[in-house]
Amino acid sequence: MYDNNNLSPERIKYLKKIKRQKIATWSIRLLILVLFFAVWEVAANLKLIDTFVTSQPSRMVKTLVNLYKGGDLFLHIGVTCLETVAGFIIGTILGTLIAVMLWWSDFASRVMEPYLVVLNSLPKVALGPIFIIWIGAGPSAIIAMALAISLIVTILEVLNAFIHTDEEKIKLVETFGANRLQVFTKVVFPSNIPAMINALKVNVGLSWVGVITGEFLVSKAGLGYLIVYGGQVFQLDLVMTSVIILAVAAALMYQGVVLLQKRLAGRQASDK
Amino acid sequence: MSKEDIVRVEHVGMKYQSVNGEIDAIQDVSFTVKKGEFVGIVGPSGCGKSTLLSIISGLLRPSQGKVFINDEEVVKTSEKVGYMLQKDHLFDWRTIYQNVILGLEIRKNLTNENKEYVLHLLKTYGLYEFKDKSPKQLSGGMRQRAALIRTLAVKPEILLLDEAFSALDYQTRLVVTEDIYSIIKSEGKTAIMVTHDISESISMSDRVIVLTKRPATIKNVYEIDLGCPNRTPLKCREAPKFREYFNAIWKELDVHV
Fold first, then answer.
1. d(CA A142, CA A132)
2. What is the CATH number of the domain that holds B131?
3. Which of B29, B131, B239, B251 is the most exposed place for a label (fewest CB within 10 A)?
4. B166 vs chain A: nearest CA distance in angstroms?
5. Which of helix, strand or coil describes residue A233?
6. How many domains does chain B have?
């Protein structure tokens, strides 16, 4: 298995142990998943649980196939994903830009502080009806909802990172006569890329919350729409199926950001 | 005042203002530095030594007095002055080469001639092979040397060293001191070094200025003449008169715990 003969027996033992642990972790993970759905299915078949309120995996698969055959499946997934990605990207860019402005001007950030604090603690769902009236019932209002939830957090996180940039590093570039813009481009921005990526990770989650909330309030398509619709007509099959699709989509998008982070970190390490 | 005085500090005083009150950091400090001279400034910790360097560099305006470099009043940072901080502060997201050209980049002075000069410095001081490496791959001593090259790249006439070696462990520090000293001398630079380390200041300086505790004023000035030819910091530490200077400055600092 280990064709490299230079490895010491201790090393081989260690590597084997690591591999064993990895296999064990993954098999238990899979087992939990399989067991969960199996118990659900069996319990439903034995009438231990009422499938009218809990649905059941085999019926969820049927629902999924029906949705696919009806041609609506990818429409709903697409709408929700598009809204989320839009909210996520706009939130990140706008939030970072505002954070840059607040970092630039101490005065502005002092003035804005209480407003940010209040907006941050305000439950953003409360703004939903306002967006619908202002923007109209549709994807734009939903994206606005996602923005409302992720924007303030992004501003606060990124601004906080900017403010805590190593003073001595700033002093260093100032000894070379750097102006404010150069301080930002040479030190503050590059040194905070990891912090900004962390903000992205939080942002992905928040954008999902915003979009689903928005779709609950107003929508004609999307996973949130399916969930609410399914709930209203008491079709738990539809609700459960949508929740599962949502979980998969959210996980995939999060992994995308993690991948981006790895690539950025990798590039920083390799081309230096 | 003589013609060769490159730096003149005249009656400089500094008061920091804050909401909670005023801190009197420096009071009426005056001295001059000759071209090519190495001046050490020692004083108890927190006495305003670094503030004094910031004022000389133009990062900070004094509340009283003036600083002149080549008879020009210092009002902002100038390219004649290079500053070395306590840590090397090499940026992880840049290669060694990209790090050492940072000053030229900021001053928008990245000419072919200056690039050549940087490469020449890297070659002369043994960092050429490492120019495309990350700072993380260099030892503490090499990093400090890269930081010095970054400072030298903008061709300053005067170097300000702010506790530039205190982040290093003792052995590395002795070697780096030796290293940096010989670079500064071979490049013919004038240097002002702030330190709390008495031995370090005696071993490197032609003159040591002793400051009082806050508000800092000049307590005494020692011309260091150890009588060793071809001096290097390590050789100086072996000179018989080293201890005398050490004891004198030690008493002057009047440290109580």
1. 8
2. 3.40.50.300
3. B251
4. 15
5. coil
6. 1
Burial label for B177, CB within 10 Å (0-12, 13-18, 19+), is buried
Model confidence pLDDT, tens digit, residues A89-119:
999 999 999 999 999 999 999 999 999 999 9
Instruction: Give me the residues paired with residue B208 across strands.
Output: B40, B222
Judge if ipTM > 0.90: no
Candidates A166, A176, A197, partner chain B, best to mutate (most B CBs within 10 A) = A176
Six token digits for residue A60: 């969820």
| Position A123 pLDDT exceeds 80 | yes
Nearest to A272 among B81, B93, B154 (CB): B93
DSSP class per residue in A162-216: HHTS-HHHHHHHHHTT--HHHHIIIIIHHHTHHHHHHHHHHHHHHHHHHHHHHHH
| Beta-carbon separation of A190 and B77 below 8 A | no
Domain that holds residue B12: 5-253
Distance from CA of B194 to the nearest CA of A (A): 16
Side chain identity at A33, as an amino acid letter? L
Query: Taking 60 as the threshold, does the pLDDT of residue A2 lie above it?
Result: no
| Contact at CB, A176 and B102, closer than 8 angstroms | yes
Taking CB atoms and an 8 Å cutoff, what residues of chain A touch B89?
Answer: 166, 168-169, 172
